[in-house]
User: What shape does this take?
Amino acid sequence: MRALVIGGAGFIGSHLAETLIKKGFHVTVIDNLSTGRKEQVPKDATFIYHDITDPTTIDLIAEGNYDYIFHQAAQMNLRKSVEHPAWDAQINIIGSLHVLEGAVKGKVKQLIFASSGGTCYGEQQHYPCDETHPLNPISPYGVAKVSVEKYLYCYAYNYGLSYVALRYANVYGPRQNPHGEAGVIAIFAQKMLQGENPVIFGDGEQTRDFVYIDDVIEANLRVINYPENVAFNIGTGIETSVNEIFRLMNAYFDNRFQPVYAPPKKGELRRSALSYQRIYKALQWKPKIALKQGIIKTLQWFEKHYATA
Assistant: This one.
């Protein structure tokens, strides 16, 4: 079976490409390396350097004879999306439309889309929320994710495109980029390993649902060939504050650090937690890695790959 992982040089995409190869798939990776790293692409994968905002993406995908497409590519800096919404839409909406066009033209069996439960719902009305919760994004990034989900529905209705949208919570783990604005655990890890106090925007009591990378990859594998076009939340259902993340990570370093507080950023949610009951009932998926265990695994990886202070 042939699988295309778009964004396969990035954090989630590289883990996914690696696992698909182990499962016997012939894997092709498309990535423009804007945030991904070439060395993270598995050596047994075919790598194509390409930007999906280029209209040639349509034919590039159509001619690849792929059975499955895993669309992991995105401009994922929420704060930049607030500052530059048109730029965000060019990548996350127009680029994704090129992918959908290519998928239809190439007659792929299924497209699995990395959506965002953390931003699609906006400020939640209840916690944890399920997939029937209203979609009220408060950032252009979230608007783009919702838009692509709507386009998927449209393409399924009009062209028979089979898809699953996975609404990720806050994914963390080894290989996460500590240099962006997304991924507080990775950002804190690098700061602490450099001997610096981490910066917390706002009062730190804002909550997120943190789900470990291995659980996310397992969810992607579970939905392959799922017969319905559907959205699934991929989270733990547990709220954890940024202050608590700092405390858990600081304990690993014998409590050597103090947080530095800064003003909150526009477009960021106050609270977020996702129910995973729909995918559990459908496919028996549930998160297996507890937060403390996942943080330790992540910090151990960062210690090996980033110089300590």
About this structure: The chain has eleven helices and 13 strands. The mean pLDDT is 95. The first strand starts at residue 2 and ends at 6. The two ends are 45 Å apart (CA to CA).
